Amino acid sequence: MTGYQIFWPLLAHVALVYGLYALLGMRRARMVRAGSIAKSDYRENRGEPAESQVIKNCLANQFELPVLFYACCVLLYITDADNIVTVGLAWGFVALRYAHAVIHVTSNDLRYRSPIFAAGYLVLAAMWVWLAIWMAMG
């Protein structure tokens, strides 16, 4: 595939991470202003309130499975294995990460969050399987 299409979904995920950091900062600032936690408590990472802990957990989750996504996108590109299908899968993975994050920082309802995570897991697995097949054929 010509161009850098495989990297647009990757950049969209980066935007999600930056958005979550902004949300975390806003929630923490609001809690400090409200007096429900001292600013120094964040410096020593003591007693993160549930209102911001859920975002902190969501952020940590963006550096777990998505690390494999970044590696796969780069490998698909450098091996010339990226195509319309892999780019579509990459966009699907990122869309599922956005949905997962929205649920995580709002209701955090596992009835919805878990299946969305599993779907992203399977989409990413399909990307890796395609890469393996491509390399085996090459």
Automatic annotation (TrEMBL):
Show the Gene3D superfamilies listed in the entry.
Membrane associated eicosanoid/glutathione metabolism-like domain
Q: Which Pfam families did the record assign?
A: MAPEG
Keywords for this protein: Membrane, Transmembrane, Transmembrane helix
Q: Which residues cross the membrane?
A: 6-24, 115-137
Tell me what this protein is called: MAPEG family protein
Q: Where in the cell is it found?
A: Membrane
Give the originating organism: Rhizobium laguerreae
The superkingdom listed in its UniProt entry is Bacteria
